[in-house]
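Notes, p. 3: input format for complexes.
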Amino acid sequence: MEEAKLNQILEAVNRAPSAGNLQAYKIYVIRDTDLRQLLCRATGNQECLAQAPVVLAFCAEPKRSAVRFGTRGEQLFCIQDATIACNYAQLAATALGLATVWIGAVFEPETIREALKITDDLWPVALLPVGYPAESPKPTSRRSLTELVRLLR
Ligand SMILES: Cc1cc2nc3c(=O)[nH]c(=O)nc-3n(C[C@H](O)[C@H](O)[C@H](O)COP(=O)(O)O)c2cc1C
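Output follows (153 residues plus flavin mononucleotide):
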């Protein structure tokens, strides 16, 4: 995957809104094959992590948000910041003709931390394999808007 496209994705992420504009997260860019295989194993063998040329790891930074927002920053805003950032990456990648899968099954955060060489100050929130799509799956089903939306008058 071209470096220029990766940079465009990261620039788009850097425009994402965040609580108090603190951007309370860090992004790790992983190209290394062994590291991607380790991530694959640490998430219950989510093969796309081993297959995609690049994986982005979005890690919330609770302390950064806590300084301004206390417990709400520590427990919620930093996770929302990282989540929005990851979603910006998905949208930017799709706009560039690439594909992503949100991997939230980070059931072994300690293994992920060891792999990324980070301390428990950072919480791995989502892993995002990015690459050219091998297939064009049909759109997935959705709940109806009448089920999802409540109109209050
Ligand atoms: C919070 C969250 C966690 C997810 N975790 C995983 C995961 O661990 N593995 C996976 O294959 N997909 C995961 N997904 C992707 C969803 O399965 C997928 O977005 C959903 O089925 C809808 O499909 P679509 O995005 O193609 O419309 C996750 C998505 C979200 C938002």
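Residues 46, 101-105, 140 surround flavin mononucleotide (CB under 6 Å).
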